[in-house]
Amino acid sequence: MSLINLVDVQVLGDERGHLNVLEANRNIPFAIQRVYYLTATQPGVSRGFHAHKELEQMAVCVAGQCRMIMNDGHSVEEVMLDSPAKVLHVGKMIWHEMHDFSDDCVLLVLASDYYDEQDYIRNYEDFLALATRN
């Protein structure tokens, strides 16, 4: 089973432009409790480097691009997010990293719950110990 789970985004539009549709409990597999976005990531800076015990997220570059690395403790895959119609599901217990942000990157993230520091696994060795138990 692939770690890269891209969801279908309905893209509507005409000569004026595009409207990309994300809907909770439809093409987003959860009720959205939190929305945040990353901007102005400096050259050479990578982000992420953590997993969540319970939180699920959907990530989309609404502008620019970045490279996502997904790791479930057994396999590692990567994908370039480079289109607002390409939305990546980051499930529970997936170590994720974001690299190679373009200057104009705006990475939008929809989360299944509110911020909770207790849900984070920030140490890679701790993540591997938990992930390889399953």
From TrEMBL:
Sugar 3,4-ketoisomerase QdtA cupin domain: residues covered? 5-130
> What Pfam families does the entry give?
FdtA
The protein depicted here goes by the name FdtA/QdtA family cupin domain-containing protein
Q: Which organism is it from?
A: Pseudomonas fontis
